[in-house]
Design a protein that fits this description.
Blueprint (H helix, E strand, L loop, with lengths): L8 H14 L1 H9 L6 H15 L7 H14 L3 H13 L4 H14 L2 H19 L5
Helix pairs in contact: 1-2, 1-3, 4-5, 4-6, 5-7, 6-7
Length: 134
Amino acid sequence: MDTDDAPRPLFDTGLKIRKEVLGTAYVERAIANADDFSRPLQEMVTEYCWGNIWGRPGLDRRTRSLLNIAMLSALNRPHELKLHLRGALTNGATREEIRETILQIGVYCGVPVAIETSRLAQEVFRELDAPAAE
């Protein structure tokens, strides 16, 4: 993304992890759609969030995904939540673990938040379970 040729190990690590969790097509589309205004944010997200935080050894990706589900639910960020619900499954979380996370959300963030998160999870599951169009 950056025209600078300087090595950017955290960016490279972040790009790799971001693609593995969210899918190459999604990440490449986000980067390709970046313009002069949004490019710095895409770079920051890739380097700082994905390279620096997701690249740390202290938590596995499954755990990070379940935490993201809880936090994005609490923050009422449905677009990012749906993306990270898919990522959680990619990272090895089961639907049962996601359901348990949603129950935990209900206690600590409120029942309406848990209901909305459950609705979005069901939407993602239906999309994933739908037969592929031929």
